[in-house]
TrEMBL record:
SUPFAM superfamilies according to UniProt: Putative DNA-binding domain (SSF46955)
Record lineage: Bacteria, Bacillati, Actinomycetota, Actinomycetes, Kitasatosporales
Protein name: MerR family transcriptional regulator
Keywords: Coiled coil, DNA-binding
Domain of life: Bacteria
Entry-linked CDD domains: HTH_MerR-like
Species name: Streptomyces sannanensis
Coiled-coil residue windows: 79-106
Domain HTH merR-type: 1-69
Record-linked InterPro entries: DNA-bd_dom_put_sf, MerR-type_HTH_dom, MerR_fam
SMART domains named among the record's database cross-references: HTH_MERR (SM00422)
């Protein structure tokens, strides 16, 4: 058989045949005087087995190991690993579908925020926050999504929910907005920082590491997102919260 005939018999492409030769999976056949390859049924059997193994999901390196093992032990081991991997994939798909079902439920109830997809806990908090045009409040709302990473985030969101209906919090955001064009020695900075620190619930403070943010550069990136006077307020707030957490 010629290359095209072998490929047609097994149900693969001639390119696949040449690729398997290149990788050493399929033995090279004898060649005629004109240079054409001539395949026998042994090649067809090996090629068919390669096709079946790859259809199961085995990688070509795994196929090579299976073909080299005459006793068949390698095949049993590889198939066991493949089955375990598929089981993990099934579990991951079930978890993703569970999360999608929760998000769809939020959407049906009108509770899916623009920042979505987010957890149910954060979705509930965001849905309770009052509408505002405050740029600082919008940034804070977006930053909450960075905390949406498990039980710790859920505790923080639960602690923040009483603040959602506190009109005084919006007033603090508006005062921070008012510092957009101020200098870093503005007299409004220190009083605002003290009031922001006082507004942070103890439950939220408990989630802050005693030695500060665990990701290097995170605090600097946060401050860089604000105007100089606003950044000075937040710098004082972070320093005061770290000090308060040590008590």
């Amino acid at each position: 058989m010629r290359t095209g005939e072998l490929a047609a018999l097994v149900g693969v492409t001639p390119r696949a045949v040449r690729h398997y030769h290149h990788l050493g999976l399929l033995p090279e056949p004898a060649r005629r005087a004109n240079g054409y390859r001539v395949y026998g049924m042994r090649h067809a059997v090996i090629l068919c087995r390669i096709r079946r193994l790859t259809e199961l999901g085995l990688g070509l390196d795994e196929v090579r190991d299976v073909l080299a093992d005459d006793a068949g032990r390698e095949l049993v081991e590889v198939l066991g690993e493949l089955d375990a991997d598929l089981a993990r994939q099934e579990a991951e798909i079930r978890e993703r579908r569970r999360r999608l079902a929760g998000l769809l439920a939020q959407a049906e109830e009108g509770r899916l925020p623009a920042e979505g997809p987010v957890s149910a806990a954060l979705g509930e908090l965001l849905s309770e926050l009052p509408e505002t045009r405050s740029p600082s409040a919008a940034k804070d709302r977006a930053y909450l999504t960075l905390l949406d990473n498990g039980p710790a985030g859920e505790e923080i969101f639960a602690a923040l929910r009483p603040l959602a209906s506190d009109s005084g919090v919006l007033a603090l955001y508006e005062r921070l907005d008012a510092l957009a064009d101020a200098s870093t020695d503005d007299p409004r900075i220190e009083p605002l920082a003290r009031e922001l620190v006082a507004a942070v619930p103890d439950e939220v403070l408990a989630s802050i590491p005693a030695d500060g943010p665990t990701v290097p550069g995170a605090a600097e990136a946060l401050l860089a997102d604000f105007a100089p006077a606003q950044a000075e307020v937040l710098r004082q707030v972070m320093a005061a919260l770290l000090e308060r957490g040590k008590r």
